[in-house]
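Re: that chain you flagged

S.,

Sorry for the slow reply, it's been a week of failed gels. I finally had a moment to sit down with the sequence you sent. For the record, here it is as I used it:
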Amino acid sequence: MAAQDPLKDIRHSLHELAQPLAAVTGLVDLLLIDRQLEQDLLLDIQMISDKLDQVLDIISRIRGIVRTATQALEEDPEYDRPEKD
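Prediction finished late last night. Pasting the structure tokens below so you have them in one place:
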């Protein structure tokens, strides 16, 4: 297996993870708009929103790490590029 294949798998997995989290974040944001909810419930929903944002931020940072690693491999003259799918 070529060295870049795991990086491609990681990028794909991060994308697959981020998509449903983004959808949940949108739904939570809609709940935050509902001013008829009790204050305690709104605080809990806000905490959920904050934690979802943290997870999405972590995913974004991991994507950056993978992007940097991919670029470093591509710039390495000794790197044997895998064939494209």
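What I noticed first: The longest helix spans residues 39-75.

Talk soon,
D.
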